[in-house]
Design brief:
By secondary structure, the protein is α+β, with helices and mostly antiparallel strands. It has one domain: Nucleoside Triphosphate Pyrophosphohydrolase (Alpha-Beta Complex), CATH 3.90.79.10. It is built from 4 helices and 7 strands, in the order αββββαβββαα.
């Protein structure tokens, strides 16, 4: 059996992202590494660990990457295949658990609160770029 077929029955790994909306803006973070991705923008998030739910992973990743607690809502947009479909990006809407929380970049160069009209101005990672129409719809329906 070829290596490709050996992995055919394995479930796809899931990477979660958090579409954190606050006062009508979306939180984006700017990559610091690896070098070929440095300077590009993405949503907070990361890989779902074994035994962890998607929601638990979103909460953990936001705490690790931003030092912020979040409340997780519904999925935003479809799953986005990564790495030839062996990994899926799944994004969830989220809000800051505390109104006066200040997310701080622990693993990234910067964070920014982005308005709906600024969404397309950023150099997003390709997987996040796929979800821009869904993120725009989320922002358009959010209270300002």
């Amino acid at each position: 059996m070829s290596e490709l077929n050996a992995h055919a029955d394995l479930p796809a790994r899931v990477v979660v992202g958090a579409a954190i909306v606050h006062r009508g803006r979306l939180l984006a973070q700017q990559r610091a590494y690896p070098l070929h991705l440095a300077g590009r923008w993405e949503l907070p998030g990361g890989q779902v660990e074994p035994g962890e739910s998607d929601v638990e992973a979103v909460v953990r990743e936001c705490h690790e990457e931003l030092g912020a607690s979040v409340t997780v809502g519904a999925q935003v947009g479809p799953d986005v295949p990564l790495q030839g479909g062996r990994t899926l990006l799944r994004v969830y809407e989220a809000t800051l658990a505390s109104e006066d929380a200040v997310p701080t970049p622990h693993e990234h160069q910067a964070v920014a609160w982005v308005s709906p009209v600024e969404l397309t101005d950023l150099d997003w990672l390709d997987a996040d770029r796929v979800l821009l129409p869904d993120l725009r719809a989320l922002l358009d329906s959010a209270p300002a």
